[in-house]
Amino acid sequence: MLELVGLRKRYDEVVALDGCHLAVRSGRMVGFLGPNGAGKTSAMRAIFGLLRLDEGGVAWNGRPVGPEVRRRFGYMPEARGLYPRMKVRAQLTYLGRLHGLDRKRASEAADRWLGKMGLEDRAESRLEELSHGNQQRVQLAASLIHDPEVLVLDEPFSGLDPLGVEDMARILRQSARSGAAVLFSSHQLDLVEDLCDDVAIINRGRVVLAGDVKSLKDQARYRRLELDTDSTAGFLERIPGAELLQSRGSRHTVLVPAEADVHELFGLVPERVPIREFTYRPPTLSDLFKEAVAG
């Protein structure tokens, strides 16, 4: 298990990390969420010793993380971390060697990952000659070249088209199934909700909500009610604690207390008003995010 314990970092008056605690279990995928400037990138950089902390530390399976342990980790930064004029295959082989693979194993791993990324025909191209999406694929291959025990990715889906997102998600799932602890940040909450086992939401340098996605949704204090009907006149006023999120034409989204009885809610809809759709379910990850950050 990867653990971030009490991370603190201040830049003059700016607090980047304020007692950040986070755990990522092997074989699990954790979505790391937060508004811009919340501390996601700082926390990720701390895992790799790229940030000199004021307090706190990083542990892997109960022991402090040092240089030798970090060689078994994989990192995909948001900013390009590769050599733009170096050929793709040579670059992957070189990075494999840096992670401790011998020349033969590094070369074989480069070919394997080029195949998985669909980039066999670009092996001898310079990185700068590739499209943005293919550069993202090479960056991911570089983080996976040594089959890491921990995989940390900062906004890996940024700028990818739907096919690229699908390929990236498939590879991350495979990494988690193979036993890696996977942590990635993203602003695409729908994607995180579909992909991740767990989430951690950071705000102002500290994690304010963390846990299994399904459990967090089930334990929320409210539910999401969606109606497609011609009128809600008198309906919302009769539900204590209801909050109208939005109304677009005949479609209405309402937050209602979790203890509300769904059968009673249905009965509150005015008589003779047609109901074309009535959906009652836990809040979305986006709902939880907004509440956690606002709180």
Commentary on this structure:
- The chain is built from ten helices and 14 strands.
- It has 295 residues and is α/β, with parallel strands linked by helices.
- The strands form three sheets. A six-stranded mixed β-sheet has the order 6-7-8-3-9-10, sandwiched between helices.
- Helix 6 links the parallel strand 7 (150-154) and strand 8.
- Helix 3 (88-98) crosses helix 4.
- The protein starts with a strand and ends with a helix.
**Biggest sheet, strands in spatial order?**
6-7-8-3-9-10
Distance between the termini: 29 Å
Q: What's the overall geometry? A: elongated
Describe the main β-sheet briefly: 6 strands, mixed
What is the mean predicted local confidence, pLDDT?
89
Low-confidence stretches: none
Whole-number radius of gyration?
23 Å
Order of helices and strands: EEEHEEHEHHHEHEHEEHEEEHEH
How helical, in percent, are the residues? Answer: 25-40%
Contiguous helical run count:
10
Tell me the fraction of residues in β-strands, as a range. 25-35%
E-strand count = 14
Which structural traits does this protein have?
single chain, 295 residues, alpha/beta, 6-stranded mixed sheet, 4-stranded antiparallel sheet
What is shown here, in short?
By secondary structure, the chain is α/β, with parallel strands linked by helices. Helices cover 32% and strands 30% of the residues.
Secondary structure elements and pairings:
Elements lengths: L1 E10 L2 E11 L4 E5 L6 H8 L7 E6 L2 E2 L2 H4 L2 E4 L11 H11 L4 H14 L15 H13 L5 E5 L7 H16 L3 E5 L3 H7 L2 E6 L2 E7 H6 L3 E8 L13 E6 L2 E7 L4 H6 L7 E7 L3 H10 L1
Parallel strand pairs: 3-8, 3-9, 6-7, 7-8
Antiparallel strand pairs: 1-2, 1-4, 4-5, 9-10, 11-13, 11-14, 12-13
